[in-house]
Design brief:
The complex is a heterodimer of chains A (141) and B (278). Chain A has 141 residues and is an alpha+beta fold. Chain A contains 1 helix and 6 strands; from the N terminus they run αββββββ. In chain A, strands 1, 2, 3, 4, 5 and 6 form a 6-stranded mixed β-sheet that branches. In chain B, strand 2 and strand 3 form a beta hairpin. The chains are: A alpha+beta (141), B mainly beta (278).
Chain lengths: 141, 278
């Protein structure tokens, strides 16, 4: 549900963007600092829970993105800039993927031609059991 | 911690079910030496189904609540884990830990007693067991030699009952492995237990005072053995809740299964539950 809300927000932003673009049709270029000019990337879920610290965490991971300007967009990891999937001459896309990592990963959407990137999204990895149980003072509750 | 919480806490600890507690492979290594003082606790609930081997008791099922505590102080450890079928109470001291081998001095409760109402879970008189003397839970102290290699473990134990129940020696060997599949963790283990004639006589023998003509003859068993198999699975529901499921089967040799008090050589127990981890 959270993802749907987030995705709806992206859609609303895009609708506002197009409305803004139509009103100010005299200017064909959007202001550089306008937040609506950035492509947006969302993931669901945003957290994976493994049983033990250090173990790989597995879950299905869904990407959704929208961009105000048609272009060649790729989703990539931030750490090593490894491309996950690209869409050519598109303004939106979806990808069902598989997350498999012992640690959190950051993703971003990049427009290949301009190098413009979206805000980074993080897939967190949490766990139930830590490797070394916490040292605690002698206090039960 | 209020008085009620304290009371519940100790009731759960004391009501720990005897089982093959000490020789399973713990993925979280609660039965190993620690650096200084550490402790952890969790609580949970589970639904169990039990196919018993006692005469007059077929299947039992029910809901169990449990509190699990692991305390380590350097080479000392204290562990109560009733969320797993092979859990129970274990107190130990690590004497040697070298080259993947460890030698521990330890104590466990391992065998569940019974009386004419059956096991711990029963309250009503079981007709087939009427008139038998109470068989108490045992509490054993001894040595355990363990060889551990990453996800595999083999252990050998020699134990002496110090509770005054059967007052005898028994030995156990257990091999277990932990494997992952995606976010699941599975433990599979198998063991062999060898019991002295004092042990089998105490739990499964029938003496003159317990004889019922044409129904329960005198029975004086000799040395016996049993083979156990355990399967245990855990899955993280979220950062604090874990799903647990398990199956524990034991097969008893004819010296035990031929007892007039016993109806089957096989005992099965299955359990599913959840555990909250702090």
């Amino acid at each position: 549900m959270y993802f749907n809300l987030k995705f709806t927000l992206i859609k609303l932003k895009l609708a506002a963007l197009f409305a803004f673009a139509n009103v100010s049709f005299a200017s064909t270029e959007l202001p550089v600092n306008n937040p609506f000019t950035d492509p947006e990337l969302a993931i669901f879920p945003e957290k994976c829970v493994a049983l033990r610290q250090g173990k790989h965490c597995y879950t299905k991971l869904k990407f959704q993105w929208h961009a105000p300007v048609r272009g060649d967009y790729c989703i990539r990891t931030v750490s090593d800039q490894k491309l996950i999937r690209c869409w050519y001459n598109s303004t939106f896309g979806e990808l069902d993927s598989e997350f498999n990592s012992p640690e959190a990963k950051l993703y971003e959407l990049v427009e290949i031609g301009s190098g413009q990137v979206s805000k980074q999204v993080e897939m967190k990895v949490n766990w139930v059991y830590t490797n070394k149980r916490k040292k605690r003072r002698w206090r039960l509750f | 911690m209020n008085k009620l919480t304290t009371t519940l806490f100790f009731i759960c600890l004391l009501a720990s079910a005897p089982s093959i507690a000490s020789n399973r492979l713990y993925a979280d290594n609660t039965l190993e030496a620690s650096d200084g003082f550490t402790w952890d606790w969790s609580f949970g609930a589970g639904y169990y189904v039990d196919k018993n081997y006692l005469q007059g008791i077929d299947y039992q099922d029910g809901i169990e609540l449990n509190i699990n505590v692991a305390i380590n102080y350097d080479k000392f450890y204290f562990d109560v884990d009733n969320s797993q079928l092979s859990g129970g109470l274990t107190i130990g001291y690590n004497l040697v830990d070298k080259y993947d081998w460890s030698l521990d001095l330890f104590a466990i409760n391992a065998h569940e007693g019974f009386d004419e109402t059956g096991t711990f879970y029963d309250e009503d008189l079981v007709y087939e067991l009427r008139g038998i003397k109470d068989r108490e839970d045992d509490f054993n102290a001894g040595l355990r030699l363990t060889r551990k290699e990453k996800t595999h473990q083999v252990s050998f134990e020699l134990l002496q009952d110090i509770s005054g129940a059967h007052k005898s020696l028994w030995a156990s060997g257990f091999i277990s492995t932990i494997q992952d599949y995606r976010n699941w963790e599975f433990r599979v283990g198998s063991g062999l237990n060898i019991y002295s004639s004092e042990f089998t006589g105490y739990y499964f023998g029938v003496d003159a005072s317990e004889v019922i003509e044409n129904a329960r003859p005198i029975y004086d068993p000799s040395v016996a053995y049993s083979v156990t198999f355990e399967f245990h699975a855990e899955y993280p529901i979220n950062e604090n809740w874990v799903f647990l499921g398990g199956w524990l089967s034991s097969w008893y040799s004819k010296e035990i299964s031929n007892s007039p008090l016993i109806s089957s050589s096989l005992v099965h127990r299955a359990k599913v539950g959840i555990r909250y981890v702090f």
